[in-house]
Amino acid sequence: MSQRTIERRGRNYVDGAWQEETRNARLFENRDPATGQLLSLYPDSRRQDVDRAIEAAQTAFSSWRRIPVAKRGEILLKAMRILESRKEELARAMTREMGKVLNETRGDVQEAIDTALYFAGEGRRFFGQTTTSELADKFSMTVRMPVGVCALITPWNFPMAIPSWKIFPALLCGNTVVLKPSPLTPDSAMHFVEALEEAGIPPGVVNLVYGAGKTVGVWLTQDPRVHLVSFTGSSAVGAQVGAMCAKTYKKCSLEMGGKNAQVVMDDADLELALEGALWGAFGTTGQRCTATSRLIVHEKVYKKFTDALVARAKRLKIGNGLDPQTEMGPLVSEIQRERVHRYVQIGLKKDKARLLTGGRMLAEGPHAQGYFYAPTVFEGSPDMTIAREEIFGPVTIVMKVKSFDEAIDVLNNTDYGLSGSIYTRDINRVMRAIRDMQTGITYINAPTIGAEVHLPFGGIKHTGNGHREAGTAALDIFSEWKAVYIDYSGKLQRAQIDDH
Ligand code: NAD
């Protein structure tokens, strides 16, 4: 690893400078979840650190918003090139701090690269509407305006992709930002901000403050100088963030949990459905908001599909994500592993679900030092706790259904509404599934994971509050529409009154 990536003592980035060590700050440890090795220490920032970051963002806003949007887009393009040139190094550092396999961390960095490219292009579009007026000699149009200072609060499972979904559209629209990443993935946040700094983002436009959610996160959501909070994380925390934003009149976008299902119909290509289920349930060790934590399988293919799923789950190679042979890495932390194991106990004892494979921590031999867990498959029913609550680990619940209608009912029988998938070769079922699945993202003959950056990302019910990230939809989070009327008649004209 280069010197730049082994910053042992992480620092906040405020007003264009990496801050001297925060005196008396509590430090939190960043450990490799595959080996337990200590990678770096980061400050749990104090109130005054947050204050200074908000102040810097507030000051920088007045000049950044006036830079032409195409020029802001060019800086994004530079950041894209820097990220591209460091993709491998950044991916390796990410695998070390949060455990997912190298192919997936490469994908995470690639998603940030794609997002930068996409929003750099938006700098040459950034369209509004021109429209007519009901009055003569009057012209009207809409223009996008920045919102102001944005607090961006992010989770650990996509430590570069998710900050990029927020930062790039926020900057393009002319906002300034304070990023508070998850304490579990500080290195990736630092690498990302370093790339932005090198791309030429002016001081104060991007600020990075490390710390805990209940301190730094809360202070950001409470502060009246912050105009917008963009949060990605659990539904429980998102509800608190939303309530605080309502109290302080902030714009607020919430991207939260999921309990996603894949339907396998009797006419499905079973091998394809199986590959999709394995990737959807155990990719990122099940720690994706779009993970396939429920499998809804038609009774005619249930046994064949389930037997094959269990056999393949048992064969998955679990280990350090840096090893190219590894198919599934560790969970991100001991706390996360305990949470997963708690849900497995609920599945066994309270729900009385049938455990088909897994259900145990892996702590022997190569797994002794890390937070590994066996890929777990339960047979269950829709009313069970493990089929209703987000587990966020390598655990999936298979449920048997008799018909297409029952499959859609079970898929929709959840508080969440992020992603859903169906495997079938019947076009009528495909069209009805698209119409009837209550999800923000719907896949046909593909797993519940795998979103692309130019389409809107987000969900309904407890998953979101009506916003979408990525694509042009993200511009609607980070800008406000202004309606402009230009009267060139030279006289007072009254809408709804004259000529009526
Ligand atoms: P989390 O809710 O515990 O934390 C998310 C972020 O919020 C972290 O930075 C945390 O420090 C901060 N935070 C915690 N308490 C806070 C508070 N009271 N006020 C303000 N900020 C606070 O989630 P996590 O464990 O980091 O991530 C996993 C969750 O994220 C899962 O529920 C997953 O489904 C969800 N997620 C959703 C999406 C999506 O786009 N819908 C994407 C990825 C992850």
Please, what is the CATH homologous superfamily of the largest domain? Aldehyde Dehydrogenase, Chain A, domain 1
Summed up, the helix count is 15
First-last Cα distance: 74 Å
Work out the strand percent: 15-25%
Which residues form runs of ≥5 with pLDDT under 50? Answer: 1-7
* CATH class annotation of the largest domain: Alpha Beta
Assign the CATH topology of the largest domain: Aldehyde Dehydrogenase, Chain A, domain 1
**CATH architect. name of the largest domain:** 3-Layer(aba) Sandwich
Average per-residue pLDDT, rounded, comes to 96
Annotation, overall tally of beta strands: 23
* Strand order in space, largest sheet: 14-17-18-13-12-20-21
Bound molecules: nicotinamide-adenine-dinucleotide
Rg value: 24 Å
Described by the principal axes of the CA atoms, the overall outline is globular
What does the main sheet amount to?
7 strands, mixed
Describe the oligomeric state of these chains in a short phrase: single chain
Share of residues in helices: 25-40%
Give me the secondary-structure category.
Answer: alpha/beta
Number of domains: 2
What does this structure look like?
By secondary structure, this protein is α/β, with parallel strands linked by helices. It folds into two domains: 8-256 and 464-483, Aldehyde Dehydrogenase, Chain A, domain 1; 260-444, Aldehyde Dehydrogenase, Chain A, domain 2 (3-Layer(aba) Sandwich). Helices cover 39% and strands 21% of the residues. Strands 14-17-18-13-12-20-21 form a seven-stranded mixed beta sheet, sandwiched between helices. Strands 9-8-7-10-11 form a five-stranded parallel beta sheet, sandwiched between helices. Strands 5-6-23 form a three-stranded antiparallel beta sheet. Nicotinamide-adenine-dinucleotide is lined by residues 153-158, 180, 182, 212-214, 217-218, 221, 232-234, 237, 240-241, 255-258, 289, 390, 392, 418, 463.
